[in-house]
Amino acid sequence: MPGRSLFDKVWDEHVVVPETEDAPAVLYIDLHLVHEVTSPQAFNTLRANGLSVRRPDLTLATMDHSTPTVTVGSLQELKVVSEPEAFEQIVQMERNCTDFGLELRGLGSAERGIVHVIGPELGATQPGKTIVCGDSHTSTHGALGALAFGIGTTEVCHVLATQCLLQRKPKTFAVNLVGNLQPGVTAKDIILGLIGQIGVDGGTGHAIEYLGAAASQLSIEERMTICNMAIEGGARTGMFSPDDTTYEYLAGRPLAPAGVDWDAALSHWRELPSDDDAQFDRETALDVSALKPMVTFGTNPGMVIPVDGEIPVLTGDLGFAKALEYMQLEAGQPLAGTPVDIVFIGSCTNSRLSDLRAAAGILQGRKVADGVRALVVPGSAKIKRDAEAEGLPEIFRAAGAEWREPGCSMCLAMNGDIVPPGKLAVSTSNRNFEGRQGKGARTVLASPLTAAASAVNGVVSDPRPLIN
Amino acid sequence: MNPVTRITARTIVLPLEDVDTDQIIPARYLRTTVREGLGENLFADWRYDKDGSEIDGFVLNEPESKGAGILVAGRNFGCGSSREHAPWALIDHGFHAVISTEIADIFSNNSLKNGFLPIIVDEDTHRWLLAHPGIELTLDVEAKELTLPNGKTVGFPIENFSRHCLLNGVDQLGFLMEQANAISSYEAQAR
Predict the structure, then answer these.
(1) How far apart are CA A65 and CA A80, in angstroms?
(2) Whose C-alpha in A73, A220, A348, A368 is 20 to 30 A from the C-alpha of B41?
(3) Residue A434 and residue B23: Cβ atoms within 8 Å?
(4) A376 near A345, Cβ under 8 Å?
(5) Structural domain contains residue A386
(6) How many A-B residue pairs are in contact by the CB < 8 A criterion?
(7) A145, A167, A189: which is the final residue of a domain?
(8) What's the longest Cα–Cα distance across chain B?
């Protein structure tokens, strides 16, 4: 029998009814993450059909997308700071969770945060689990060896009602990460470099597993950044085989198994890593030692260059020309040195404690350049507390940056945090699509180091000269 | 869901590649709790200027686009977010199908669950369709083929189960609910 991949093993363990030519597999879901933006219509369908939530105990609900990141002490204050539609959505989420018996990590909860940040943080995300959410960045959870992918609202309803999904098995795609990262080059640069290499549709129809010596050296938070953006390469998901780094990360977390349950879980998890002779439908390699800090210059994450490089010249490509026109940038010119209006450090890609520490390392003892607005948004209430315990907000504030409440914030401009038209934002988030951060906003995706360095210099900047 | 067996409609052409779901429906319009009404803001940022006036030259604003039901788009249509609001907006505007050489996975899944057809064709057919906007096409789900105005037919792939559901108006939630015994057995042995 040929070796099996992590993906194959997790998939096989969750097949309720096998796939046939005429029907997809019925796949069991171990953890369903629910948020306020992609669930209301699903709850409406449950109501209309008199259905209940099959497994409230396997459903984790929070609010992150349309919630404001300014401090609100009451519902009345929330109403004042929110636009009416966002407020209605938040109130509706509370009602839905009450009506269907779901525990909501709501605005007042000490465990609230971006859904893809709190899953791992609470220990709900575990190796070998199937995890879904009405959000394409669900792939983040693959960092711990889970099979995690984004779904639409109709499927959210399917999982609420049956805890199952109808799924065709995707193909598998091995990405071998080799070499050693150079100083100042981060996990974000790895994933931007990879998307630049395979293209924004390079992973379509595939589940990626990141393998290789460089993969095993990455921390869980770094793996999350890399899995998070698998979808930006078109892939259904991204995963890392679990290892001691994974188990150390999970031990002692509130929803992780404990005692004898931990021992049983651990022996199961140790069977999950891909076999040495596992077969993949596709393979590629990326030498991370050749990477530099990466920045996007266009309107999708595949339009990316090293920060000391030049924007390529590509004639006769309609989309490329449109992207540069939108970005107000010129082919053949460097991107470094372009004036910056806003710096956003946050999102499910880069809002964890290690990201905030990296940014603080650059900002400590320095100032955000005149005319630049810098926004630091922790991914969860816990990260906010942890950062406060080690004095990070003082560093951000002394530098002139704003320190906000947790949420998706400026990543997608539906909660009051918006990049104004025509302004250029260096952002640690995941999408530089036209208008993603606000109508007419121009986004440069980068690592927390590059974002912080750009805030200090007031122009798109290589962080390496600022690293002590 | 109502059965979808055969669609005959006029095309419009949006040749850009990698059209993402943030273009199809920007995130600020996701602050809704219903499926209806999104068509008004389909491609909002390409369609309207900052004052809300229609932008000349965008295909949806052309008079001949009125009543078109099939969108012929560049490669990798619907990439990005999982928002089902994207097919909802296309449907609400009056579209029944999108045709391209490649369509993003989640968008494609979401589309099929709403009776909206994500149709993949070969490069030659695609090039021809891009070069001939405004023609009337027939998409036959039963026969898995589209018919060009000259009568020529071109096959397209469609996943068997989705096709069955489209043809018979099968609600996939109902199908899953019928698996209750298998799901209970799975839960009993897994825990």
Answers:
(1) 17
(2) A348
(3) yes
(4) yes
(5) yes
(6) 174
(7) A167
(8) 61
Q: Which amino acid is at B2?
A: N
Q: What is the pLDDT of residue A317?
A: 87
pLDDT at position B191: 61
pLDDT, tens digit, for every residue of A6-27? Answer: 999 999 999 999 999 999 999 9
Chain B contact for A28 (CB, 8 A cutoff)? yes
pLDDT of residue A362: 98
- Residues of B in Cβ contact (< 8 Å) with A28: 183, 186-187, 190
What is the arithmetic mean of pLDDT over A128-137?
Answer: 98
Closest approach of chain B CAs to the CA of A362, in angstroms? 31
Residues A436 and A326 in one domain: yes
Q: Starting from the edge strand earliest in sequence, which strands make up the sheet with A402-403, in order? A: A402-403, A373-376, A342-345, A424-427, A442-445
C-alpha A212 chain-centroid distance: 22
Q: How far apart are CA A208 and CA A34, in angstroms?
A: 24
Point out the domain boundary residue: A123, A141, A167: A167
Give how far the C-alpha of residue B27 lies from the chain's centroid of Cα atoms, to the nearest Å: 18
Residues A143 and A222 in one domain: no
Q: Please tell me whether residues A410 and A282 are part of one structural domain.
A: no
Same domain, A136 and A176: no
Task: Tell if the CB–CB gap between A431 and B35 is shorter than 8 Å.
Answer: no
CATH code: domain of residue A226 = 3.40.1060.10
Domain range for A335 is 294-466
B28 to chain A: which residues are within 8 Å by CB?
413-414
Which backbone phi and psi does B119 adopt, to 5 degrees? -110, 125
Task: Please state which CATH number belongs to domain B6-190.
Answer: 3.20.19.10
Q: How many structural domains comprise chain A? A: 3
Structure tokens at A373: 């607005």
**Residue of B34, B113, B159, B173 for testing the chain A interface, max A β-carbons within 10 Å:** B173
Note whether A457 and A367 are within 8 A (CB): no
The dihedral sign for the CA sequence A79, A85, A90, A91 = positive
**Residue from the list B15, B105, B113 with its beta carbon closest to the beta carbon of A236:** B105
| pLDDT > 90? residue A315 | no
| pLDDT tens digits, A148-201 | 999 999 999 999 999 999 999 999 999 999 999 999 999 999 999 999 999 999
What's at A8, amino acid-wise?
A: D
A216 plus A193 within the same structural domain: yes
Q: Residue A128 gets which letter from DSSP? A: T
Sole residue written with tokens 């021809």: B128
| Any domain includes A30 | yes
How is residue A226 written in tokens? 């890399």
Residue corresponding to tokens 């990455």: A218
Q: At A138, list the tokens.
A: 């669900």
Residue reference for tokens 């429906």: B25
Shortest Cα–Cα distance, A85 to chain B (Å):
5
pLDDT at A466: 97
- Tell me how close the Cα of A468 comes to any Cα of chain B, in angstroms: 37
**Residues A377 and A459 occupy one common structural domain:** yes
Q: By the CB < 8 Å criterion, does A434 face chain B?
A: yes
Between A70 and A2, where is the model more confident? Answer: A70
Estimate the share of chain A in helix, then strand, then coil, as percent rounded to the nearest 5. 35, 20, 45
Distance from CA of B146 to the nearest CA of A (A): 22
Tell me what percent of chain B is helix, strand and coil, each rounded to the nearest 5.
40, 20, 40
Q: What is the CATH number of the domain that holds A347?
A: 3.30.499.10
Same domain, A313 and A374: yes
Give contacts of B30 with chain A, Cβ < 8 Å: 37-38, 65-66, 414
Q: Cα(A407)–Cα(A349) distance, rounded to whole angstroms?
A: 12
Tokens 């710096």 -> residue: A343
